[in-house]
Specification:
globular, 9 helices, Rossmann fold, Immunoglobulin-like, mainly beta, eight-stranded mixed β-sheet
C-alpha cells in the first residue's frame, strides 16, 4: 500500500569504503512568519534584485525592520502606511464617483495564485466594492490572453513578483475603486515575455496600462505601443539613472516622491523628491538612445542639459516610508508597507482612468505637457534631489525636473483628453420589475464596461460620439442590446433595460478517471458566468447536478486528487442534459493515485527487523540475513547522482531512496560470515517487450571477500540465472539490468544474493521488475471523513488525522491519508483519501487528542470505497 517519500539532500560519498562522516548540505528559503503586532519599520528592502541584460526587475520596495526581514502583520496594515483615502485626499481624486466602465491593465511577471483572494481582503478592509472574477471586475490571464495555463510563480532569492502584483492591484483599487482590473501575467521576467504581455494588453483593447518594472536602458531597446492608450512605466528605484521602458518616448515615465501629511499647509500634504541614499530613490536622467519627443521640446531648463528623451514626465508617492499598506499571502503572509516607483506607476495609470478614455490617435503622455492650467492641475514638487548630476535632471525645482517631471496629480484635469459624456440608467427584471444588481453594461466600440449597483443603476463615462451597441448581460438572463447610441459632450443619456429570464434546465453527470482506473473523482466544476460558484461531485460516486438557465456554457473541470489533467468542456444545456467527463491522469509525471510503473515495485518502507512483507521472502544460512531496520546505521542507497568531484575520488549524490531499503550487512554480523537471498514475489510481465530489473544500490565490499548477485527466474522460481554480478568494486546508485528473456512471461521472480565474510554490506531500495512506463495499479481508492465522537464532540470534524496501513503506520506522501478541510461545502472538513491494493486491508487512524481506531476495509478494484471514522477523545483528554 505504501509509496516512497521523496528525499532531496546532497551527500558526498567516498568511492572507497573508508570511514568518515557524511557531509550534507541543505538549501534554506526565507521564512515569512506572521506577526500579531505592527512591525518596527526602520529600513527598506527591494522586492526584486538586479537582473542581467534581457530581463527586467520589479520596482517595489518594502518597509522593513532593521534586520531587513519582512514580518507581515496578520491583523491589519502597519499604522505608518498610507490608505486609499490618503491617496484620494493628497491628489484630490474623484475616486468615489469616477472610473465606472474603465479597465486598468497591469502587466507583471509570473503567477500570483492568491491575487484575487488577497485583493478581496484589501478591498474589504477599506470598504471598497468587491472586484472579483465572478462579477466581471477582475480578470487574470497569461501573456496569450488566456485564463490558463498560468505561468509559474516567480518568487525566489532574486525577486518575488507576487508582492509586486499585490501592490499594483491594491494601488489601482485605492485610486480607482470603480475601475475594472485586468492582470496579465508574463511567462517570465525576460524582456521578451514582458513585452509580449504588453502587446497582448494592446490586442485586448487596453486603454490604461501600468508597468512597474524596468532595467537599465540599452541600444536597440523597443516596446509595444498604440496611440490613444495611456501607458505608465516606473522610472526606477536606484537613484539618478535612466531605465527602460520608462525612457520610451511613448511611455508616461513616472518618478517618485515622499508624501507627508502637513496640516499647516492648505493642501494638507507636502511632497519632496524620494531619495533615501545615492543608491535608493527615484530614477531620472537623459536617455542615451531615445529621441526627444515633441512635447518635451521648448522647455528651457531641459533643453539646456538634454537633447534626447528625458525622464520623468509626472510623479507620485514612492517612498516606502510613506508607502501604501497592501495585503499579500503568496510572496509574504499578510499586511505590508510597500513603496518604490512601482507604487507611483499604478497611481498615475489609475488617475488616467479617472480622467476618462484617451482620445483616439493621441499620445496620453503629452496631456500634462499641453495642459493650459498646469499650475492648478499639478502639484509642482520643488524640493529634493536623487543624485549629484548638478542640474535639473536630478534636482527638483519650479516647473519640469527629472525626479518629479511636471509634478503630481492635483485632480485629473492634467490627464484628460477630449470631451466626455455619460450613459446612465436602470436594469430590471422584466417579469417582476425588480432591479438586477451586478449586471454587466458594455458600450462598443471601445469596450467600456461597468456593472449595476444594488438598485440596478449604472453609469458609464465615455468619450462623446456614436456607439454601435450598448449591451446588458447577466447570468440567468437573455442579453439585451440597444444599437446606435449617441453620447453628447457634458451631457447624460438615459438608457433603461428590462431583462428576460430564459427557462431553466438541469445539467448532471459523473466525473471519473479516464486513464484506466475508471473510478469516480471528487471534482470541482466551474460553470462559465455562474455567480453561485463551482459545483462539486460526490467523492464516492462522482455524480453532480446543477440547475442553470438553458443555453451554452464552458465547464472547467479539475479534481483535488494530484496528478490529473484539468479539462475544459463545452456543453449546451436544455431542459435535462447529461454531461459525463473523464479526466486523464498525467502519465508523464505519474503522480496520480493508483498509477505507477508497470510491474513489481518495492521500497521496503515501514518494514521491520528481518521480516519480509507483501510476498517477498528472505532465505539465509543461519539466523543472519537481509534486514529492513538498518541495524548497522548505513546510509540509504543513492537513486541519482551528478558527476564526480573534480580532482577527487568522490561522487556527489543528490537524491536518495529514503528510509525504505533492505540491507545485507556483513559488517554488522562480523566475524560471522553472511549468505542471504532476498526474493521478490512472482509478477506477470505479459504484454511487455523490454522489461528491466531496476534498483538503487549501495554495495560496499570488503576487498575480494564479498559478492553481490541479481538472479532471474521466469518459471516461478524453479530455475535461476545470474543476470548481474559484483565483487571487489563498489556499486553505487541506480542499476538497470535489461532482462529480455522475461518479456511476456507470467511468473517472473528476481532475487538479490549477498555473500560476505568481512565488513562489507549491500543496501538495496527502489526496486522495479518490469517497465517504468506509467500504468494503472491493481487497487482502489478509500475515502471518507474523520469526526469526533462522544458527548462533547459528536459530529465535529477532525483535521490532521493520519489514516494508514495498520501493519505499517508510517505516513503516506502528503496529502494522501491525511484528513483535511475541503473547498467543497459538502465536506466541511475531516476529509481524507488514499489508494490501496484490492482486497481486505487493515487500516488505522490516529489524531492528536483522540483515541486511535482500527478497521478492516474491503477495497474494490477501480472503485471508491467509503470509510468514515468517529474517534473518541483520548483517555484523560
Amino acid at each position: 500500500m505504501r509509496k516512497p517519500l521523496a528525499v532531496c539532500v546532497a551527500i558526498v560519498l567516498p568511492l572507497a569504503m573508508a570511514s568518515g562522516a557524511l557531509a550534507a548540505t541543505t538549501a534554506l528559503s526565507r521564512a515569512n512568519p506572521a506577526a500579531s503586532a505592527t512591525p518596527d519599520l526602520t529600513t527598506n528592502t527591494s522586492v526584486c534584485g538586479p537582473v542581467p541584460k534581457g530581463f527586467m526587475r520589479c520596482f517595489a520596495v518594502m518597509r522593513t525592520p532593521s534586520d531587513h526581514l519582512m514580518t507581515p502583520d496578520v491583523a491589519g496594515p502597519p499604522s505608518t502606511a498610507l490608505t486609499p483615502a490618503d491617496l484620494e485626499s493628497a491628489y484630490k481624486l474623484p475616486s468615489a464617483t469616477a472610473g465606472g466602465g474603465q479597465t486598468v491593465t497591469i502587466v507583471d511577471a509570473g503567477d500570483d495564485p492568491t491575487a484575487e483572494s488577497d485583493l478581496a481582503v484589501f478591498r474589504s478592509h477599506y470598504g471598497l466594492p468587491p472586484c472579483t472574477t465572478a462579477n466581471g471586475c477582475f480578470t487574470k490571464v497569461n501573456q496569450e490572453g488566456q485564463a490558463s495555463p498560468l505561468p509559474p510563480v516567480d518568487c525566489s532569492s532574486s525577486g518575488c513578483w507576487p508582492v509586486e502584483e499585490s501592490l499594483d492591484l491594491d494601488t489601482v483599487s485605492s485610486v480607482c475603486p470603480n475601475c475594472n482590473i485586468r492582470l496579465i501575467e508574463a511567462d517570465s521576467d525576460s524582456t521578451a515575455d514582458l513585452s509580449a504581455a504588453e502587446a497582448r494588453a494592446l490586442v485586448m483593447g487596453a486603454k490604461f496600462i501600468s508597468n512597474s518594472f524596468g532595467s537599465p536602458e540599452y541600444s536597440g531597446e523597443g516596446w509595444p505601443y498604440l496611440a490613444g492608450v495611456a501607458v505608465t512605466a516606473s522610472a526606477g528605484d536606484d537613484g539618478y539613472g535612466v531605465n527602460f521602458p520608462s525612457a520610451d518616448p511613448d511611455m508616461t515615465a513616472v518618478g517618485g516622491t515622499t508624501l507627508t501629511k502637513d496640516g499647516s499647509v492648505k493642501r494638507g500634504w507636502d511632497e519632496t523628491v524620494w531619495s533615501t541614499s545615492t543608491t535608493e530613490g527615484t530614477g531620472s536622467g537623459c536617455s542615451a538612445y531615445e529621441p526627444q519627443p515633441s512635447f518635451q521640446q521648448g522647455i528651457p531648463q531641459l533643453d539646456a542639459v538634454c537633447q534626447n528623451r528625458a525622464t520623468t514626465d509626472v510623479s507620485a508617492d514612492a517612498n516606502p516610508v510613506s508607502g501604501l499598506g497592501i495585503y499579500d499571502t503568496t510572496g509574504e503572509s499578510g499586511w505590508l508597507q510597500v513603496g518604490g516607483t512601482s507604487l507611483a506607476s499604478p497611481i498615475i495609470a489609475a488617475t488616467y482612468a479617472l480622467a476618462g478614455t484617451p482620445q483616439a490617435g493621441t499620445d496620453p503622455n503629452a496631456y500634462p505637457y499641453h495642459d493650459p492650467n498646469q499650475s492648478a492641475d499639478l502639484n509642482d514638487v520643488t524640493q529634493g534631489s536623487n543624485g549629484n548630476c548638478g542640474n535639473v535632471l536630478c534636482t527638483a525645482g519650479p516647473g519640469w525636473d527629472g525626479p518629479t517631471g511636471l509634478g503630481t496629480p492635483d485632480g485629473v484635469k492634467a490627464f484628460q483628453s477630449g470631451p466626455q459624456g455619460q450613459i446612465s440608467g436602470q436594469v430590471t427584471d422584466k417579469a417582476t420589475g425588480q432591479p438586477v444588481a451586478g449586471a454587466t453594461v458594455a458600450a462598443q466600440p471601445g469596450n467600456y464596461v461597468t456593472r449595476t449597483d444594488s438598485s440596478g443603476d449604472y453609469e458609464l463615462s465615455l468619450e462623446a460620439g456614436s456607439y454601435t451597441s450598448l449591451t446588458v448581460s447577466d447570468f440567468g438572463y437573455t442579453t439585451a442590446t440597444d444599437s446606435n447610441v449617441t453620447v453628447t459632450a457634458s451631457a447624460a443619456t438615459t438608457k433603461n433595460f428590462a431583462l428576460t429570464a430564459p427557462p431553466s434546465g438541469v445539467l448532471s453527470g459523473t466525473v471519473t478517471d479516464g486513464s484506466g482506473q475508471g473510478w469516480p473523482l471528487h471534482a470541482e466544476i466551474t460553470v462559465s458566468g455562474d455567480p453561485n460558484g463551482p459545483v462539486w461531485t460526490s467523492p464516492y460516486t462522482g455524480k453532480y447536478s446543477v440547475s442553470l438557465p438553458q443555453g451554452s456554457y464552458t465547464l472547467e473541470v479539475s479534481t483535488d486528487y494530484p496528478g490529473y489533467v484539468d479539462q475544459t468542456v463545452q456543453v449546451k444545456v436544455g431542459a435535462s442534459t447529461t454531461q459525463s467527463i473523464a479526466l486523464a491522469a498525467d502519465l508523464t509525471t505519474c503522480t496520480a493515485p493508483g498509477y505507477g510503473p508497470d510491474g513489481l515495485t518495492g521500497n521496503f518502507a515501514g518494514w521491520t527487523g528481518g521480516t519480509p512483507q507483501d510476498g517477498w521472502a528472505v532465505r539465509s544460512h543461519g539466523r543472519a540475513g537481509w534486514r529492513f531496520d538498518d541495524p548497522g546505521n548505513r546510509p540509504p542507497p543513492p537513486s541519482g547522482s551528478i558527476p564526480d568531484l573534480a580532482g577527487t575520488s568522490d561522487t556527489v549524490f543528490d537524491q536518495f531512496t529514503g528510509d525504505g531499503f533492505a540491507v545485507a550487512d556483513a559488517g554488522y554480523y562480523a566475524p560471522r560470515p553472511l549468505r542471504t537471498a532476498l526474493t521478490s514475489p512472482p509478477v506477470s510481465l505479459a504484454g511487455q517487450t523490454a522489461p528491466d530489473i531496476d534498483f538503487d544500490s549501495a554495495y560496499y565490499p570488503d576487498g575480494g571477500r564479498d559478492t553481490a548477485q541479481v538472479q532471474l527466474s521466469t518459471d516461478g522460481g524453479r530455475r535461476w540465472v545470474t543476470v548481474w554480478r559484483q565483487s571487489a568494486a563498489n556499486a553505487l546508485g541506480p542499476v538497470a539490468i535489461p532482462v529480455p528473456q522475461a518479456a511476456g512471461k507470467t511468473r517472473v521472480e528476481a532475487r538479490w544474493v549477498f555473500t560476505g565474510g568481512g565488513l562489507g554490506y549491500w543496501a538495496v531500495g527502489g526496486v522495479l521488475v518490469g517497465t517504468a512506463t506509467c500504468a494503472p495499479q491493481a487497487g482502489g481508492l478509500i475515502a471518507g471523513t474523520v469526526t469526533a465522537s462522544g458527548s462533547t464532540g459528536t459530529g465535529s470534524t477532525v483535521n490532521g488525522a493520519q489514516v494508514s496501513d495498520a501493519a505499517s503506520p508510517e505516513p503516506y506522501p502528503w496529502p494522501e491519508g491525511i484528513s483535511l478541510a475541503s473547498a467543497d461545502p459538502a465536506l466541511a472538513g475531516g476529509y481524507y483519501w488514499l489508494f490501496a491494493p484490492a482486497g481486505s486491508q487493515r487500516l488505522s487512524v490516529t489524531a492528536a487528542g483522540y483515541a486511535a481506531a482500527t478497521a478492516t476495509v474491503i477495497v474494490t478494484k477501480g472503485a471508491v470505497t467509503q470509510k468514515n471514522w468517529a474517534l473518541p477523545a483520548a483517555a484523560g483528554g
